Amino acid sequence: MKIPAPVKVSQDKVTFDVSEIEPILQGPALDVKPFAPRSVVLTNRAGEKKTMLIRPARREEAPALLKYISAEFLSAEDLDEVPDFYDIVGARVYAEILGWYRSRLKDPYNLLGLCGGELTGFANGRLMNEEINISLHTLAFDRGFRAGVAMYYAKCQYCFEDLGQDEFWSTFESYNGWKRWGVGMAQPTYPWPDLQHELGGGRVYYLTRKYWESTVREYLSENYGIRIEREVPPALLEENQDFRLPRSPEAEPPPPAPPEPEPVKAPEPAPAPPAPPSPEALPPLPGA
Question: Where does 69-117 show beta strands of DSSP type E?
């Protein structure tokens, strides 16, 4: 778009360095208190337990996360075979991590759930402003240990208890997430379509700080017997300083082949009976 200048100018071309443009495109960041690591003991239905550390992801970890999300959720040859909306969730999570990595997502936070250094869960969101926290996605990579429940709760806790914000906004792409957190936490909604969540224009489910303090704060312990601990042993932090990607079932190495059986030896042939003596060698019969 061009409009002639309404005044005489000393130069008709103005150039910019990209470093002058970047602050405008990126926008000023809020002064956000970082997420402090915390831990939670997870238990599956078989009674197996493991301790998960929840810590913020580092920017240099983004390429490995992107590679894993792409391989795990975006490589299906037949879209009709992808269950539970994992394809659209994977595509959006990929874009959100990339937006964080390329500084094109406003005030994001990305949380890793790690068990013994292995990526077990992921959760992310961003700050709309100082009052409103927007939940984006929550993923569990080791199903059955309720890692996703703990990761979503950790985002709520971060919003209200660490940042002191007023509201936490969610929307849900999958039935499981809607049932577990939307219905499970009895989250009210804003009028729709008057107010829409940035993820596809879905309904905005929300928690307020008052509702958190009066009711939802105990949701994790009352419904799942899980409690998040803020005091993290140094050994647990050290164990999860770096992370390794989970191994998909298809990538599991085959079990070792059984040892070759010892060859069966054929039995030694029985020795041949001695040859009968020749007639000439026989002694003469009596009376002969």
Answer: 108-115
